[in-house]
Amino acid sequence: MKVLVIGSGGREHALVWALAQDPEVEEIVAAPGNPGIAVMRPAHDGQTIVCRSVDIADHDAVVALAVEFGADLVVVGPEAPLVAGLADPLREAGIAVFGPSKDAAQIEGSKAFAKDVMATASVPTGRAYVCTTPEQAAEAIDAFGPPYVVKDDALAAGKGVVVTSDRDEALEHAAGCEQVLIEEYLDGPEVSLFAITDGTTVLPMQPAQDFKRLADNDEGPNTGGMGAYTPLPWAPEKLVEEITEKVLQPTIDELRHRGTPFSGLLYAGLALTSRGVRVIEFNCRFGDPETQALLPLLKTPLGGLLYAAATGKLADHEPLSWKSAASVAVVVAAKKYPASPRKGDVIAGIEQAEVNDVRVFHAGTALDGDDLVTAGGRVLAVSATGKDLDEARQRAYAAVGQIRIKGSQHRTDIALKAARGEITL
Ligand code: AMP
Ligand code: GLY
């Protein structure tokens, strides 16, 4: 199988790595890929992995590349091209695509659309008001009371949400958005559950947890995600079944009934509140950095799985199978992330870090001559597996300790509470 992977982040690096483990995958092109993908070695004889530069906003160029390469499958990684509709012209060209259409990607592209789908399908979520003026926003903010949850309706790379007890900060964030959602505050631990779907059949992955705040103890600003782990030893036994039945399947069914079937990865971000499971958000693609933690534990060959989803054949697919181990991914971010990440700092120590089942996935890196340098906010995701979370944590943090980037930041408490058994429902 020949697979074209669109995107250049840590999630795409992890996807390429996992696709390469599938014996059926012979050729992978990553476009534009990143310096980490560019130096990947094949996982089996005769396999090739190369990067090709392409402007992913230029849909004609991406279709031309897919045709020229003879791709059997195109995997679109990031949300921006999906929301912009890249999957549509690829499908029109007769190519199997893993990733939703432009219309279905609205589940992530517009929070108001997602709320409407959930209301129709009776999917449990926080109550919310959609506001278009500062006056409406102020009214909604005062109706709920603190802590205030203010969400930009549009895509904002994980930085569109402000959760604060400071009324002025809430009002200020609302004023900066064209359309804003003011939402009820949801307490309780968060879970990310990903499902592979062809628009009808839903195959849930195992749950993961992401750490959105910049600093230890969930302090500091929201980010795209500073680390993740899986599985969740504290999760109730039937959690995946419950979320599939109450959230994933009804959402997929509703999108199909609307004439906009969702094929690809549906990401449910959930809060396990005292009153039950609530959806915080949907995303239309693999989550970052949960993917970097999840994929090293997936035993099911990824190429075959994504191809089955892309061609509407998931009903015949086996349930997913997982290694019985634990996995932890720790993000190493650039100095001054998320406000104004510094670019051009030299990155050293990756080779020393990649021992003991550790993989370093590149996200914001670039080559400057022979030097690998920082080129984005979240620079690397250091992912390790182990027999349990303690061992996976030890390995991940030993590896993070090998990596040297001036002024870099990382959290030291990824998966710590879970490993210590301190998360309760
Ligand atoms: P989102 O981009 O919607 O996932 O929001 C980013 C983060 O903000 C989430 O992972 C939560 O930690 C937090 N958040 C979002 N909505 C709520 C809510 N209604 N109640 C509490 N926290 C929230
Ligand atoms: N892990 C958060 C995201 O991918 O949006």
UniProtKB/TrEMBL annotation:
Cofactor(s) in the UniProt record: Mg(2+); Mn(2+)
Pfam families: GARS_A, GARS_C, GARS_N
Pathway assigned in UniProt: Purine metabolism; IMP biosynthesis via de novo pathway; N(1)-(5-phospho-D-ribosyl)glycinamide from 5-phospho-alpha-D-ribose 1-diphosphate: step 2/2
GO biological process: 'de novo' IMP biosynthetic process; purine nucleobase biosynthetic process
Presence of keyword Protein biosynthesis: no
Recorded catalytic activity of this chain's protein: 5-phospho-beta-D-ribosylamine + glycine + ATP = N(1)-(5-phospho-beta-D-ribosyl)glycinamide + ADP + phosphate + H(+)
PROSITE patterns: ATP_GRASP, GARS
Keywords, in A-Z order: ATP-binding, Ligase, Nucleotide-binding, Purine biosynthesis
EC class of the enzyme, as a word: ligase
Classification via InterPro entries: ATP-grasp (IPR011761), ATP_grasp_subdomain_1 (IPR013815), PreATP-grasp_dom_sf (IPR016185), PRibGlycinamid_synth_ATP-grasp (IPR020561), PRibGlycinamide_synth (IPR000115), PRibGlycinamide_synth_C-dom (IPR020560), PRibGlycinamide_synth_C_sf (IPR037123), PRibGlycinamide_synth_CS (IPR020559)
A GO MF term: phosphoribosylamine-glycine ligase activity
Protein EC: 6.3.4.13
KW Ligase (keyword) present: yes
Start and end residues of each ATP-grasp domain: 115-311
UniProt family annotation: Belongs to the GARS family.
Protein name per its UniProtKB record: Phosphoribosylamine--glycine ligase
Gene: purD
